[in-house]
Amino acid sequence: MEYGVIILAGGKSSRMGTNKALIPVQGATSIRRIRDEIRKGVPGIEIAFDDMPVAPFIIVTNDPDPYQFLGERTVRDRYPGLGPLSGIHAGLESSSCDWNLVVACDMPMVTAEAARFLLEEAVASNVDAVVPFIDGQLHPLFAAYHKRCADQIEHMLNAGQLRMHDLLNRLHVRRVTEADFPDEVDTKRVFYNMNRPEEWQQVQVWLDIDGRDSE
Fold first, then answer.
1. Quick one: fold of 3-214?
2. What is the pLDDT of residues 156-183, one digit of tens each?
3. Which of 49, 125, 146, 157 has the fewest Cβ atoms within 10 angstroms?
4. Which is nearest to 172 in space by CA: 120, 205, 138, 131?
5. Distance of CA 84 to the CA centre of its chain
6. 176 with 130: CB under 8 angstroms?
7. Cα angle 62-53-75, degrees, rounded to a multiple of 5
8. Is 178 in contact with 189 (CB distance < 8 Å)?
């Protein structure tokens, strides 16, 4: 079985004041760090997570030029300006894989271990989506979705229903909590959203501490 990876390059980033996908995070852009972490240690695009094959990544963006440096496929929203639901729809519709990991560009602390766990749970659970429920909050923008969800999302977009929670209420969803993840996954960091300058600074602090600890 192949697994797809869909990275949502995001919208206006008004709270950050600059493009979150391209903001520097320890020598790399946030989006590159996410891409590289998910396929860390992988000899080629076709293989990821050792024994779990993965198709080439898909970057969802309506401004593809700034992301050409990644060397990945880019796709545009069919319903531009309608938020993350539109991005997920574009990625799922363009993917050749049944199961796809969706990750937002403002989550630079995601790990390959967390990604692998979500995909494994998705295949084993016979559901439409696996969505983390961490610290009492759903995280639908680092989650696994079956390609069939694209039809339901398209119906919602055409009806002007744009809330992620409304989508999840329509799907057969497995929620996974902190207790479900492997011990090596620090869910506090993995599901940290970097929307404001102070949150970007927090990420820098974590990474600086990690760097000193590894010396």
1. Spore Coat Polysaccharide Biosynthesis Protein SpsA; Chain A (3.90.550)
2. 999 999 999 999 999 999 999 999 999 9
3. 125
4. 131
5. 11
6. yes
7. 10
8. no
How far does Cα 152 stand from its chain's mean position? 19
12 is in an annotated binding site: no
Annotated ligand binding at 9? The verdict is: yes
Please tell me the pTM assigned to this model.
0.90
Query: In this structure, what token pair is assigned to residue 182?
Result: 């492997």
Residue the block writes with tokens 């990420």: 203
Q: Are 10 and 104 in contact (CB under 8 A)?
A: yes
137: left (phi over 0), alpha (psi -120 to 50) or beta: beta
Q: What is the pLDDT of residues 59-95, one digit of tens each?
A: 999 999 999 999 999 999 999 999 999 999 999 999 9
186 is in an annotated binding site: no
Q: DSSP letter at 93?
A: H
All structural domains of the chain with their residue ranges = 3-214
Q: Does 40 appear as a known binding residue? A: no
